[in-house]
Every structure is written in C-alpha cells, then in structure tokens.
C-alpha cells in the first residue's frame, strides 16, 4: 500500500496517549492566548491543574499532545496563536473541533494516512459504508510492509490504536455513535472552512489553488460542497467569491485572519 510519499513518513503510536483531546485542547489553547508564553502555560496545566485531572501524568500527556499538534509549524495551516484565537471566538464547539482536526492529522502521519487511504475510499465508494476495528487493524498490518516501525507493535497496541482511531472518527462526526461503525460525511461548519480558507489565501495560494487544496480531502469535501461553503461564506460577508467557467475570483473581506476572528464572527 505504500508509495514514495508515504514510505518516508514515520508512524508513531501517539494517538492512544491523549486521544482527540478536544475539550482539553480548547482549554490549553484558550489559556495560552492569555499570555502567549509556553512556560506559563506549562505551569497552568501541570502546577495549577488547568485541566482538572487527577493524575499529573495524564495532564502531561495532554500538554505534550497539544505541543506536538499546535505549537509546531504545520504550514500552510495557521499558527498556534491563530488557532488559540479561534478557540475563544464566537463559533460553535463543533466548528472549533473541526479547526483542531487537521492539526491532529498533520502531527500524526499514521492518523492522516488512515483518514486519506482507508476512510476516504470507504466513504467515496458508498453512501452507507461500515469501517470496523478489524479493517483498521488490517490497514496497520498491511502498512507494516513498507513501515518497519509498525512490525514492533504488539497485537494489543494495534487493537488499542484501532479503537482510538474509531473514537477519533466519532468525535469528529465521521462515524455514527457506538456500537455502530457506519461512516458519515461530516457536516463541515462554514466558520471552520473559512478559518482555513483565509489562512490559505494569506499564505499566498491563488484562488484556484485554494479551492483545489488537498486540505479539503481530510473533510472529504468535493467541488460542489466546497462551492456551497464558499457561497455561504460570501453570504456572511466574510469573502468575495465569483466563478465564471474556469476563472475563480476569491478575496477576503478582512485584512487578516485575526481581524476576521475578532470582528467577522460577530455579525
């Protein structure tokens, strides 16, 4: 299953240490925004028990996951400061979770590849497709042919990782609640979509590059769905969008992503 692109990726067993950690990530990033200092954030999480965890080891796992996911350059995804700003902005918890999601994928190559090469084909093949724990375990075993690091995983670790991955899909609205294993196309919120749209434009991508960017594959978005979200974002007054044949015009109506987070979401 491997190719030249995926063969160079290193797979790690990180997912089971903190899981998706959606509420914990929102709390950590919101706290970071108060002083924008990693040392102070560490004190808040580990000494002042910001996350209200009984174990310091548990709190430390969430902090390490947050650092790996949000405080590393995952360009062209927006910076940690901007993600933190989004976590206190006027948008739903679902939209905030959808903003966190690609950072989890980009920080964990195995999660990203499982989404793109296992889940995405299942969803695109059928409107009612199941994905079982055994399917995920088989994917891991097949990947071990080109990723020797997976060969050292015990069967118990493979099973735990598979359970954690199915939990991730459920947390992000990509699978029905347990015990069902039916995959779902997530309903992508326009706020989360616009956050990344404006980030890509700010990074210098052309309108057509933005519309066709591989980031949208993580949400299983296709052309018509992307266009609907563009129209919705324009209706909110966040962007200017028009399309005539193959010519796409796409411009932000706010001078920066931060300005949109501060002012645009209030309207």
Helix content: 55-70%
Can you tell me the overall shape? Answer: globular
SS summary, helix count: 14
Q: Tell me about the biggest sheet?
A: 2 strands, antiparallel
The rounded Rg comes to 19 Å
The structural domain count equals: 3
Specify the structural class: mainly alpha
Low-confidence stretches: none
What strand line-up does the widest sheet have? Answer: 1-2
Q: How much of the sequence is in beta strands?
A: under 5%
Q: For the terminal residues, how far apart are their CA atoms? A: 47 Å
Mean pLDDT: 93
Say how many strands there are: 2
Order of helices and strands: HHHHHHHHHHHHHEEH
General description of the model:
The longest helix is centred in the middle third of the chain and has 17 residues, at 109-125. The radius of gyration is 19 Å and the shape is globular. The mean pLDDT is 93. The chain has 14 helices and two strands. Helix 7 (93-107) crosses helix 8 and helix 9 (133-143) packs across helix 10. It has 267 residues and is mainly α. It has three domains: 15-107, no CATH class; 109-171, no CATH class; 190-266, Arc Repressor Mutant, subunit A. A two-stranded antiparallel ribbon has the order 1-2.
Give the helices and strands, then pairings.
Blueprint (H helix, E strand, L loop, with lengths): L3 H4 L7 H4 L3 H14 L2 H9 L9 H15 L9 H8 L5 H15 L1 H17 L7 H11 L11 H17 L18 H13 L4 H5 L11 H13 L3 E6 L2 E6 L4 H7 L4
Antiparallel strand pairs: 1-2
Helix pairs in contact: 3-4, 3-6, 7-8, 7-11, 9-10, 11-13
């Amino acid at each position: 299953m491997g190719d030249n692109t995926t063969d160079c990726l290193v797979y790690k067993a990180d997912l089971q240490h903190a899981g998706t950690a959606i509420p914990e990530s929102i709390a950590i990033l919101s706290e970071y925004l108060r002083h924008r200092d990693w040392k102070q954030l560490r004190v808040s999480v580990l000494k002042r028990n910001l996350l209200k965890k009984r174990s310091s080891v548990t709190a430390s796992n969430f902090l390490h996951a947050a650092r790996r996911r949000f405080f590393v350059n995952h360009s062209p995804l927006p910076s940690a400061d901007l993600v933190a700003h989004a976590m206190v902005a006027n948008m739903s918890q679902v939209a905030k979770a959808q903003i966190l999601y690609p950072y989890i994928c980009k920080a964990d190559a195995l999660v990203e590849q499982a989404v793109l090469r296992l889940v995405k084909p299942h969803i695109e093949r059928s409107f009612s497709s199941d994905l079982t724990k055994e399917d995920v375990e088989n994917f891991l075993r097949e990947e071990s042919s080109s990723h020797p690091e997976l060969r050292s995983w015990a069967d118990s670790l493979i099973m735990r990782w598979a359970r954690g991955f199915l939990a991730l899909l459920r947390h992000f609205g990509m699978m029905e609640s347990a015990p069902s294993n039916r995959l779902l196309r997530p309903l992508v919120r326009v706020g989360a979509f616009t956050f990344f749209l404006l980030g890509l434009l700010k990074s210098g991508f052309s309108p057509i590059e933005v519309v066709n960017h591989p980031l949208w594959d993580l949400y299983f978005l296709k052309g018509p769905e992307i266009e609907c979200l563009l129209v919705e974002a324009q209706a909110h007054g966040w962007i200017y969008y028009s399309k005539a044949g193959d010519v796409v015009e796409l411009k932000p109506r706010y001078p920066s992503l931060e300005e949109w987070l501060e002012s645009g979401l209030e309207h």
